[in-house]
Design goal:
Rossmann fold, methyltransferase, EC 2.1.1.-, alpha/beta, binds S-adenosylmethionine, SAM-dependent_MTases_sf
Length: about 260
């Protein structure tokens, strides 16, 4: 039905645009994964389902599966992060996985890297709305960033070879790229074998997280930046955290761990 600019339909009857509804109720697995952070995760899910959709950061078809496919899935890699670690999330989009990791692990310091202004504006307002003091939003491409941290994450951003090229300059020696991938994770890692070999990479693995615990487990490709690796055009990097120190968690040596 046609309506006037202020929403009044011909004939004087006022039409109200349909409300943008919030996120669905979190499934039981979300309570298990988020624990004490569940309320904050719910507020983030509501923002994704409302302004995230209306601002075009999230497709409307994602709303019913926000929890399983996005929030729970992106929270699982927290098990691979040390206490107080800094994380650079490359290509955050609507904050996935970086914002989720910051929610589930308040001890982390998370840097969201995203080139698109519309997205960084939404991310900044979301960080403020959620009162997250452990998140910094950076606008720009990963290749242009002057940051240094022990961990970089990425989901649905680029192929492994690009992610390696973008993340290694941001990683301290021994730092880790954690790329959240789909079912082709093992194949992608295999395809990147020659490049990784040329770059001197000795440690890489695919981790299957959440198997038997959640409905949509995640595969994380872990690639360790070799100590010897040299950027071809070294720049001045701003360290955002200590490199991984002597209190390392054990790192699986196998190519695939569950
Ligand atoms: C398909 S979206 C994925 C967003 C989010 N990681 C997710 O899983 O929903 C890819 C994001 O990567 C960003 N991006 C593309 N190239 C990039 C680069 N060189 N450095 C950092 N971010 C980049 C895009 O702007 C976009 O927000």
């Amino acid at each position: 039905m046609a309506q006037t600019r202020d929403g009044e339909a011909p004939g004087g009857r006022r039409t109200v645009p349909p409300p943008v509804s919030g996120a669905p109720e979190p499934p039981a697995e979300a309570a298990d994964v988020f624990g004490d952070s569940l309320d904050l995760a719910r507020r983030y899910a509501d923002l994704l389902a409302t302004t995230g959709i209306s601002h075009g950061l999230v497709g409307p078809r994602e709303a019913p599966r926000l929890w399983q496919r996005h929030l729970v899935n992106c929270a699982l890699p927290e098990a691979m992060l040390d206490e107080g670690e800094s994380v650079i999330d490359i290509g955050s989009g609507a904050g996935l996985p970086g914002l989720v990791l910051a929610i589930v692990r308040p001890d982390l310091r998370v840097h969201l890297v995203e080139p698109l202004l519309r997205r960084t504006t939404w991310l900044q307002s979301t960080v403020e709305a959620l009162g997250l003091s452990n998140v910094t939003v950076h606008r720009g491409r990963a290749e242009e960033m002057s940051l240094l941290a022990p961990v970089a994450t990425a989901r649905a951003v680029a192929s492994l070879d690009k992610l390696v090229a973008w993340s290694f300059p941001l990683l301290a020696p021994g730092g880790r790229l954690l790329a959240l991938k789909g079912e082709a994770a093992e194949v992608e890692l295999e395809q990147a074998h020659d490049l990784l070999h040329r770059m001197g990479v000795e440690q890489s693995a695919v981790h299957h997280l959440g198997v038997g615990r959640v409905s949509e487990p995640v595969r994380v490709v872990e690639i360790v930046r070799p100590a010897q690796w040299q950027a071809s055009t070294p720049g001045t990097r701003r360290r955002v955290d200590r490199p991984r120190g002597s209190t390392k968690r054990g790192r699986p040596g196998s190519r695939s761990s569950h």
